[in-house]
Amino acid sequence: MTAPGDDVDQDAMADAWAASMGGDDADGGGGGDDGDDLAAEWAAMLDSGDGGGGGGGGGAAPRESTRVLNQDEIDSLLGFDDEQDDGDQKSGIQAILNSALVSYERLPMLEVVFDRLVRLMSTSLRNFTSDNVEVSLDNITSIRFGDYLNSIPLPAMLSVFKAEEWDNYGLLTVDSSLIYSIVDVLLGGRRGTAAMRIEGRPYTTIERSLVERMVHVVLSDLSGAFEPLSPVTFRFDRLETNPRFATISRPSNAAIVARLRIDMEDRGGQMELMLPYATLEPVRELLLQMFMGEKFGRDSIWETHLAEELWMTEVELEAVLDTQTMRLGDVFDMKKGSHIDLGATPQSQVMLLCGDVPMYLGRMGRRGDQIAIRIDGRYEKPKID
């Protein structure tokens, strides 16, 4: 027996216990395997225990506990850290998911279109509100359509519009601050006072009507911004207040979101223009091209010069009066002075060839001392039934 304060040699206890179990087996003649297993288990328990325990202590704490991540570390791992919201850089799983999205930087012409839209809106909204309006482009981002619908701050008005020539839809979101500011300005609100906001109530018919008028102005400017690149008509379709009713694409589809800031002295708000990549697909090649100035890469002087030079280019044409099929032996028998009878008559049509390509049909005649061909029309390849 040992006192509670005495140190216990754990290895010696394990050896003594194993020896005693072995002696009992030798005397008793049975249970040797069970004794060895019990001794090994006891030694393992002593090795995993705390070395500072007393003789009467039994339950020892484990050496190292499993570490649990806190909420900040989980958010950083998933890529939803608040510190990253101010920029476009993403990390963690969110970066992996967004890696499949096409960045708007691959469409350099699109940024020029949005810059042109800002200039047009600054002028048109000033005429629309009769107030000093400043429009600025905050940023252009790529996002999935489902994530965008979930990120819309409510209450808001969502305007669905259709690109007629592209046969697809887009979305224009107007936040509550801009809605109340537009209503206040159009209905003669005093300057210097903030627009009054009443939360918890639906938008009235007057508010919806005034916002719809502003949306028509913005869509007209958007058509004008795309006109130098590709003429397109954006037609207003409907106005929704519930994002679920404004679904125009699959949730997993990628889209371009341009955030516009509209300031009217001490009032204003934000407007977001969302265009799915499927909508921009018809003009994708045009959006990929590089540009110079307002002509979007076109040089009118060079185009005019090229057209003039093409009209002055000389092209050699061959007139074929008739074609015959002859045997090779008859061709070898031809000698100097041999005659070949043509099946053409003065009224027969003559084919004009440019190289091996038939171009025109005409009739043979005379102009002065030279034989000439008067062109009757283009050569049309016969249709095969």
Automatic annotation (TrEMBL):
<keyword id="KW-0145">Chemotaxis</keyword>
<feature type="compositionally biased region" description="Acidic residues">
    <location>
        <begin position="1"/>
        <end position="12"/>
    </location>
</feature>
<feature type="domain" description="Flagellar motor switch protein FliN-like C-terminal">
    <location>
        <begin position="308"/>
        <end position="377"/>
    </location>
</feature>
<dbReference type="GO" id="GO:0050918">
    <property type="term" value="P:positive chemotaxis"/>
</dbReference>
<feature type="compositionally biased region" description="Gly residues">
    <location>
        <begin position="49"/>
        <end position="60"/>
    </location>
</feature>
<keyword id="KW-0966">Cell projection</keyword>
<dbReference type="GO" id="GO:0005886">
    <property type="term" value="C:plasma membrane"/>
</dbReference>
<dbReference type="Pfam" id="PF02154">
    <property type="entry name" value="FliM"/>
</dbReference>
<dbReference type="InterPro" id="IPR028976">
    <property type="entry name" value="CheC-like_sf"/>
</dbReference>
<comment type="similarity">
    <text>Belongs to the FliM family.</text>
</comment>
<dbReference type="InterPro" id="IPR036429">
    <property type="entry name" value="SpoA-like_sf"/>
</dbReference>
<dbReference type="InterPro" id="IPR001689">
    <property type="entry name" value="Flag_FliM"/>
</dbReference>
<keyword id="KW-0282">Flagellum</keyword>
<feature type="compositionally biased region" description="Low complexity">
    <location>
        <begin position="13"/>
        <end position="23"/>
    </location>
</feature>
<protein>
    <recommendedName>
        <fullName>Flagellar motor switch protein FliM</fullName>
    </recommendedName>
</protein>
<keyword id="KW-1003">Cell membrane</keyword>
<keyword id="KW-0997">Cell inner membrane</keyword>
<dbReference type="GO" id="GO:0009425">
    <property type="term" value="C:bacterial-type flagellum basal body"/>
</dbReference>
<feature type="region of interest" description="Disordered">
    <location>
        <begin position="1"/>
        <end position="64"/>
    </location>
</feature>
<keyword id="KW-0283">Flagellar rotation</keyword>
<comment type="function">
    <text>FliM is one of three proteins (FliG, FliN, FliM) that forms the rotor-mounted switch complex (C ring), located at the base of the basal body. This complex interacts with the CheY and CheZ chemotaxis proteins, in addition to contacting components of the motor that determine the direction of flagellar rotation.</text>
</comment>
<dbReference type="GO" id="GO:0071978">
    <property type="term" value="P:bacterial-type flagellum-dependent swarming motility"/>
</dbReference>
<dbReference type="Pfam" id="PF01052">
    <property type="entry name" value="FliMN_C"/>
</dbReference>
<keyword id="KW-0472">Membrane</keyword>
<keyword id="KW-0969">Cilium</keyword>
<dbReference type="GO" id="GO:0003774">
    <property type="term" value="F:cytoskeletal motor activity"/>
</dbReference>
<dbReference type="InterPro" id="IPR001543">
    <property type="entry name" value="FliN-like_C"/>
</dbReference>
<keyword id="KW-0975">Bacterial flagellum</keyword>
